[in-house]
Amino acid sequence: MERDEQQSPAVKLPRGAKRRARTRADLLSAARNVFAARGFHDATISEITDAAGVGVGTFYLHFHDKDAIFSALVEDGMGALRGRILAEIRAHARPTLPVVLRVILRAAYEQRELFRVALMGGIANRRFQARDVLVQVFAQFLDHAPDLAPFSADDSLLLARLLAGIILQSVTWWFEQDEPGADLMAEHVLSVMQHGFPAALFDVPLPPSFFALDELA
Amino acid sequence: MERDEQQSPAVKLPRGAKRRARTRADLLSAARNVFAARGFHDATISEITDAAGVGVGTFYLHFHDKDAIFSALVEDGMGALRGRILAEIRAHARPTLPVVLRVILRAAYEQRELFRVALMGGIANRRFQARDVLVQVFAQFLDHAPDLAPFSADDSLLLARLLAGIILQSVTWWFEQDEPGADLMAEHVLSVMQHGFPAALFDVPLPPSFFALDELA
Amino acid sequence: MERDEQQSPAVKLPRGAKRRARTRADLLSAARNVFAARGFHDATISEITDAAGVGVGTFYLHFHDKDAIFSALVEDGMGALRGRILAEIRAHARPTLPVVLRVILRAAYEQRELFRVALMGGIANRRFQARDVLVQVFAQFLDHAPDLAPFSADDSLLLARLLAGIILQSVTWWFEQDEPGADLMAEHVLSVMQHGFPAALFDVPLPPSFFALDELA
Amino acid sequence: MERDEQQSPAVKLPRGAKRRARTRADLLSAARNVFAARGFHDATISEITDAAGVGVGTFYLHFHDKDAIFSALVEDGMGALRGRILAEIRAHARPTLPVVLRVILRAAYEQRELFRVALMGGIANRRFQARDVLVQVFAQFLDHAPDLAPFSADDSLLLARLLAGIILQSVTWWFEQDEPGADLMAEHVLSVMQHGFPAALFDVPLPPSFFALDELA
DNA sequence: TATGAATGAGCGTTCATTCAT
DNA sequence: AATGAATGAACGCTCATTCAT
Question: Could you say which of A96, A195, A214 has the minimum Cβ distance to residue B204?
């Protein structure tokens, strides 16, 4: 993209490549909407091509199959997000977990549609991709922390998963609601991550009404 | 549907009723295995009936459609689990969150296969059922806590979701590993819920090596 | 212990097996017509199922794919033919080549439609099946002949192919014409096989008119 | 624009005509390889254009459709072969059947790839083109033979087919093996055409082992 | 009640053909 | 003339569901 643009105004090899790229982008965009709305399995190729305003056959000119566009969508999208996140993190002198978390949540908030696709996605394994990216980030912090007390180093992967579980709920929360936004959410999340949930929570007993309620159902 | 006609103390349902119940149970059991192994969408009715040792047509004598057996599976399973959990909770004089959590995790550990089905299940919405049960329990505690500081009462649903996120990760952790078991897991979970994650985590900066690594990929 | 065939006139396990067998036969019969008329590649499954008066899905209950029904058709058909031929040959005290040839040609004449399917069939390799059966029969005779002069034993496979070539033309001849029938055809074929083609054929020069004709075209 | 510049005596076709002819030749050559390797139906236009190193659209500048290039291939190829054969025949003072056969087999041996295409070709009818050319040649000889004893003139077309059947097997033999070459093959073929197959063949009975073998299968 | 053969709408996918550049 | 992105009809095939037995 940033390589030699010839002096001549004509660009490099737009032999129809521009059209092709445009169609591919249309397909990806259409696929994002369709996958988000209907999930991987219930989405059909022709829903996607209809939404993109192209013929069915065109789909296969750009993607090998349904799996491929899903992967491209998630991978491209997550790749871009990752790039953006890394760039922002690099801007900080000391990128601590709170900083990183704020950046991640801001990015995730803006791309909640992408996360919806990734997390509702079809094949089970793929659904864990988003989680695993988070896990890797947390693992970095855990591995470099001088002391994990009261946990041992062996617990770091599990801790990373629990941390990811909190973020994942923040993101899925945004599937239904826009509030609180990224920054307030980050504050909440950081609060519980650092100090735990309100202490009162652990003292009150479950009210007998809970059982009463249940009896009815 | 299964109303008790308790004329006679023990069994009273004559004819093929016992046989019918047996077939239904076979189908549910077969469905659990098949759904766990292949997911909702990729599972076929005949896989289930084959595994159950009955004819395809028999399936429709017991369940209206594929969705119905999935729901029945999750609902029956979760219902039974819920019953067991409630019973255990009731045995406690003061069922506080730590107590409840231990009970829940113990039950979930034993029924991890059921959770796998519920959480990997096909139709997106259904995947949240398991989450929502947890959310409801946490909401109970949150609603009865005298003070949520530093959060407000308005945050209680969000907090419930974040708590559920942690539990959900414990359960999915067990999809791949059996260790730590339910009790140790409960201790870990309670620790982070009450006191937060290790403080050191929030001070260390992300090492530059993180970016270096990324550049390669 | 052999399964008990009840005294009762009812046959073994006609649980719907009769219906099934009937449908399969219908499909095979329909496929024979369709393949004969349109060739393997141009035949479609729904042409076959329409002709058989069943639904498309039914096809796949009986055959794994298009290849499978073609093979079944040719193999079943050829197998039956082979059985019939062997039975007839066995009836002879001394089944010499002339005898065998007559039997083969009679069978082929009656089943010319089957040969049309086999020989026009789609995948190239399969087209040679019919030829190879003939080759094997001829190879038997060649291998047991005391003397192949003026040929050597090494030539026996080639000779078998040349013999088969003659038979194959007899059979394809019948794709367009019914005359001469099997017996007269056998006489002709045996005549050229035993004594060669009319001697005069090898003396006359090609008339100049041949070239003249060609110039026009 | 400089039209017909016939400076050089040979070339007369100006502008892109040479280029055009070259592209057409490339397509034909590519098509021969592709058709030979994959058969008519399984060959795709883009395989051909890829192999020819031109764009798909270019194909339709030169041939009306897939059938057209197949026909052109077989017709051009066979036409060229025919020309070569005729030229060689004309060189003989008395081109008798043995002479003609040798010429034909030599040509066929060299062009076995073309025959593979023609004989494995897609649409059934076209597969008989090669055969029919042979039949026409033999018909010439048969029509000019003074005496067809023990056959009648009415049998001449059938005899031509039987003769063609032998040649066809020689050619298909070469699809798998290169030996014997054209000249030795011609000798063998002429031997059986003139004198028939080894006499011993018609006396030996089919050995009982033949049946035994069959029983196993 | 249980069966499993039959169904057919609907899917993913291919590829000969067109046409704007 | 040459290109190759785009097209869409048509195919093979699957599988949830029905129904005669």
Answer: A96
Cβ B204–A145 below 8 Å, yes or no? yes
- By Cβ distance, the residue of D90, D140, D159 closest to C197 is D159
Lowest mean per-residue pLDDT among A108-122, A195-209, D10-24: D10-24
Tell me: the pLDDT tens digits for A152-188? 999 999 999 999 999 999 999 999 999 999 999 999 9
Instruction: Say what angle helices A45-52 and A17-42 make with each other, to 10 degrees.
Output: 140
Residues 6+ apart with CB under 8 A from C195: D195, D196
What are the DSSP calls for A129-160, one per residue? HHHHHHHHHHHHHHHH-S--TTS-GGGHHHHH
CB C21 within 8 A of CB C59: no
CB–CB of D41 and C98 under 8 A? no
Beta bridge partners of C96: D205
Distance CA C105, CA C100 (A): 9
Least confident of A124-133, B112-121, D9-18, D45-54: D9-18
Task: Give C28-45 pLDDT, tens digit per residue.
Answer: 999 999 998 888 899 999
What is the token pair recorded at C103?
């039997």
Contact list in C for residue D195 (CB cut-off 8 A) is 195-196
Q: Is the domain covering A71-195 a CATH 1.10.357 domain?
A: yes
Q: Which CATH code for domain B65-196?
A: 1.10.357
Q: Which of B119, B136, B141 to mutate to test the interface with A (most CBs of A within 10 A)?
A: B141
Q: Exposed, middle or buried: residue C50 (CB in 10 Å: 0-12, 13-18, 19+)?
A: middle
pLDDT at D120: 75
> Do D198 and C141 count as a contact with CB atoms less than 8 A apart?
no
- Decide: helix, strand or coil at residue B5: coil
CATH class of D67-196: mainly alpha
Q: Name the residue among B155, B159, B169 with its Cβ closest to that of A165.
A: B169
CB B151 within 8 A of CB A185: no
Q: For the whole model, what pTM was predicted?
A: 0.80
* 3-class DSSP assignment, residue B14: coil
Q: Which run of H or E residues covers position D213? A: helix D209-216
- SS3 (DSSP) at D117: helix
Contacts of C162 in chain D (CB under 8 A): 166, 169-170, 188-189, 192, 197
pLDDT of residue A183: 96
* C17-63 CATH, one of 3.20.20.190, 3.40.1390.10, 1.10.10.60, 3.50.50.60: 1.10.10.60
β-pair partners for A96:
B205
CATH topology of domain A16-63: Arc Repressor Mutant, subunit A (1.10.10)
